[in-house]
Amino acid sequence: MKAKHQRLILALLAVAGIAGAGVLGASALRDEAAYFRTPAEIAAGKAATGEAMRLGGMVAQGSIERLGDGVTIRFVATDGKASVPVEFTGIVPDLFAEESGMVADGRMRADGTFVADRILAKHDERYMPPQMGDMPKGVAKMAPKT
Amino acid sequence: MHAYANPTRFLAIARPLTPWLLGGGLLLLMVGAWAGLALVPGDYKQGETARILYVHVPSAWLGMGGWTSLAVAGLVQLVWRHPLAGIAARAIAVPGMLFTALCLATGSIWGKPTWGTWWEWDGRMTSMLVLFFLYAGFIALTRGDEGARAGGALSRGAAVYALVGAINIPIINRSVVWWNSLHQGPSITLRGSSIDGALLWPLGLTLTGFSLLFGAIVLMRMRRIIAENRVTARLRRLADDEEG
User: Fold this and answer.
1) Mutate to test the interface with B, among A125, A132, A139 (most CBs of B within 10 A)
2) For B122-141, how does the pLDDT look when each residue is reduced to its tens digit (9 = 90+)?
3) How large is the ipTM?
4) How many structural domains is chain B composed of?
5) Which of A128, A137, A141, A142 has the most B C-beta neighbours within 10 Å, making it the best mutation to test the interface with B?
């Protein structure tokens, strides 16, 4: 066997080893590297009351209500499987809206409400011209989703 | 393959190719930037801020594509010891790092009005920042080392580093699928695009334009290293002649 072939086999073995280690590491990080938890995970009891965490989900349609003090809002975050009521005092990003994704920093209160200190809007992967976005819901849904 | 590893044969192709890549790249970029910034409508939800994607997406693609080619060059250096592989890896590192930085910067500028934050430690952003540091490490490792003074070959350590760093590329690509992330999922996949055709076509122009420009920069940097090698060799010969 030529030295060149030996080096090729060695290098390919090393690359396979590195790739394997990377995949193992990445899958071990699956839960730890999550940027936020979903309402379903919270419903499954993965969040202790008072523990600082992030909650991500869609803002349920028709759920945003403004409280009497003018700066506090309440809405329901959902992932289709479970939903969590959220309360937040402050300014939300421009793109925060019903039927749109959001991520909230905060903690669960004993009564099952998530109290957020900060809210970020999550954008989805769809981009389209305004005319299409303004179309009635049924038509806009025909636009490619993923 | 051996034929093109010869610097003289490489130069015979690279010399006429450079101006075409450079000119074509700049032309496509100008048309693409004009179309993306002025011609097509903004996004239905984000409005005008969505236009940054015409720079952000090509930068991300080149940052990741740059390291992929750098790793291939590292492999070729390790196994076949082609003189051009190390030169190519050295030439790719700086523009690769530049485009990675451009990707991070444009992403941050877009994140503030869209998400409401400049920076978050989610999977996509963190792995992209790791790529930036990988480039910085490679440049620090190879700049002014023994190989830089003698022909441009990579040391075994640098070539192995390039290969090991490549594991980050699929991680960046999959980060938004594997982990809950603030960054949205992939818009363009093998199955199609969730960016509407009306907004998509300038991206094709800027993507090709930036890629051609990247190619031109890499060829110019490779030619510079080869020219430097020749000057060094000639000076050494002259010095030997004087002594003799």
Assistant:
1) A125
2) 889 999 999 999 999 999 99
3) 0.78
4) 1
5) A128
